Amino acid sequence: MPGFELFGDLERQQVNDVLDNGVLMRYGFDGMRNGHWKAKELEIELENTLQSKHVQLVSSGTAAVSVALAAAGVGAGDEVIMPTFTFVASFEAIMMLGAIPILVDIDDTLTLSPKAVENAITPKTKAVMVVQMCGSMGNMDALQTICNKHNILLVEDACQAIGGTYNGRPLGSIGDLGCFSFDFVKTITCGEGGAVITNNKEYYTNADHYSDHGHDHVGSDRGAETHPFLGYNFRISELHAAVGLAQVKRLPEFIDIQKKNYTILREALSQIPEVTFRKVPDGGEESYAFLNLFLPDLDTALKVAEAFKTNGVDACWNYYSNNWHYLNKWDHLKDLKSLFPISTEVKEGLEYLKTKEYPESDHYIGRNISCLIKLSWTEAEVYERANKMVTAVKTVLET
Ligand SMILES: *Cc1c(COP(=O)(O)O)cnc(C)c1O
Fold first, then answer.
1. 35, 172, 216, 248: least buried by Cβ within 10 Å?
2. Alpha helices, H only, the chain
């Protein structure tokens, strides 16, 4: 991660196909396209890659989460359970539907604690959204069991986890719906883009219509299509889809590189007894997009993060009070700063955020350092990095 590190001829060729006929829109203009349907092709490619019956491309990962929830009927006043550790987009996407994000603790998988989920379920809970953060996953069997028992949806925000698997199945394809992002810093990028995947035909049809103003996409005359329900515009463009098409074909190559680099760094750090690693559930295989380590406590983790920085080890973060990935930095959401009025129901539904404490999440995020695994490092650079990391950690532990 990120895929842009390895842009080349394949991406250029795909984009040129689109520019040669000038049809930048994914729907219509059949006569002008010279047979190029990049968005359609990318959807088919993703159906195979993600072993999912249906894929709907959209304009971003944030849009994917909103569209997925909307497609399954989640809306005003419904509660959606999500983890305290995620990119802020997961929260925003729920809010956009007038639904209520219910934040619960994470565990050592760095995503939803099944126990915390179970405790948070109310009659208003419509969905549980697990966020497969940093290339790994939650305990999917436990989460699925809870959702089945309470008859609620399981949605996967797999925006950071393309290429990871659980019991041999691609992450994103396990829940009722899965969401992906292809923004500029993700493993597969197309600039801006996202995807909703599902095996449920009805959810797919809803996502297809909803993401294009409610168009039913029947027939080849766009002007004559009917609109069974209200929709918006979350379409992806052909130019973006073209870049994504080149990138997705390279996914196995990218995952191999990530795994190789990750393994070198992990083996080096494993020599230090005080360093432990995020738990990958049994049957899980990471995408190796990040290496997540734990130090003994917050203070040590902050010092190590600083020592990494001063020793030239970039792209490593302690998210506790830094960046946009943990609720400590979400004061604008806790204070409900909005440009426009928010419904009383949502306001009341979010009151808990002002006072609720998350000791388990603080415990894990406080001790964690997340290190991005890059695709463009040479082998020598990875070994040099491993040495620098080991030295930095040992120096902090000894002082
Ligand atoms: C990137 C990301 C998103 C949002 O994707 P965009 O394409 O940037 O809108 C949502 N959730 C997670 C976990 C992400 O990392």
1. 35
2. 9-21, 38-49, 61-71, 89-95, 114-120, 140-150, 201-210, 238-248, 251-270, 298-310, 331-334, 344-349, 359-367, 379-398
